[in-house]
Amino acid sequence: MGSRYADKVVIVTGGSSGIGKGCAREFVRAGARVVVCSNDEEGGAAVARELQDLARAEGRGDALFLYCDVRKEEDVRGLVETTVERFGRIDCLINNAGWHPPHKPIDDFSAEEFRALLELNLVSVFTACRLALPHLRKARGNVINMSSLVGQIGQHHATTYVATKGAVTAFTKALALDEAAHGVRVNSVSPGNIFTPLWQEAADAAPDPERALAEGRAAQPVGRMGTAEEVGRLCLFIAAEATFTTGVDHIISGGAELGYARKSER
Q1: Three-class SS of residue 92?
Q2: What is the dihedral sign for C-alpha 251, 221, 156, 18?
Q3: What are phi and psi for residue 65, nearest 5 degrees?
Q4: For the chain, what is the total number of helices (H) and then of strands (E)?
Q5: d(Cα 19, Cα 98) in Å, to the nearest integer?
Q6: Please, what CATH class does the domain formed by 9-194+229-252 belong to?
Q7: Distance (Å, whole) CA 114 – CA 203
Q8: Catalytic positions, please?
Q9: How far is CA 16 from the centre of its chain?
Q10: Do the Cβ atoms of 252 and 234 come closer than 8 Å?
Q11: Which residues are bridge partners to 36 per DSSP?
Q12: Within a 10 A sphere around the Cβ of 18, how many other Cβ atoms?
């Protein structure tokens, strides 16, 4: 990995597990100083210690954990201000924090549940971008918003989640237009089935966990689910090397969206 992003400063929201943790790890390996934020204080602190050990072993990079509930503007403001106080700049913001509710038909979702999910999956992205952009403009940095493949292709019994992720993709494109004049690139990443602790929890809650995992693997032509580190490497490429790319939604799905298939039991 070398020093592809040496001494750059990166914020990763929702960095205590899953894709966020995978992103933080790949950026530290590339020499970046990574601020991991999460509302899981114990988990976030543990990840920061792991990353600090990795940085020492690699001889480059650094990591810091900051508690942050991205649904609270004052927390996000503190995240941005503390990052700048500690490291002097922000080069990349990865908006990864979010949640996928259990699958159920629209009849079983309440408007209050939808509003709460919008706050977490969408409004928090807006807030973090708005507060970090003054610093990203100075550094001519970039934003990476974590969307989802299902924001493009839909998903069974997931109307609220799909709506939030479709909105993240659209927001990314609009912001990319605005920020090009300031030298800030804004892109999104849309993972398909990435094996994370959240995926394992969903499988464990299924009537047949092994079957659920097998179906998850079989959904991709490549015959497996992706890893959080693979998503992290894509994000690193966007930040470090894809310097003529903005407003693009980068799908990382193992080909899950390809081809026709029977979708009706009729």
Answers
A1: strand
A2: negative
A3: -105, 135
A4: 10, 7
A5: 11
A6: alpha beta
A7: 23
A8: 161
A9: 11
A10: yes
A11: 12, 65
A12: 21
Q: Which residues does 244 contact at the CB level (< 8 Å), separation at least 6?
A: none
Task: Compute the residue count for the chain.
Answer: 266
Q: Which residue has the tokens 């997931």?
A: 158
Average pLDDT over residues 230-257: 98
pTM score over 0.70: yes
Average pLDDT, integer, range 162-166: 98
Distance, CA of 211 to CA of 208 (rounded, Å): 5
Contact 13, 128 (CB under 8 A): yes
Contact, 98 vs 87, CB < 8 A? no
In sequence order, the 6+-apart residues with CB closer than 8 A to the CB of 15 are 21, 23, 24, 34, 36, 37, 38, 44, 47, 96
Per-residue pLDDT averaged across 122-139, rounded? Answer: 98
For residue 153, CA distances in Å to 192, 232, 233, 258 come to 10, 23, 24, 11
Matching residue, tokens 């201000």: 81
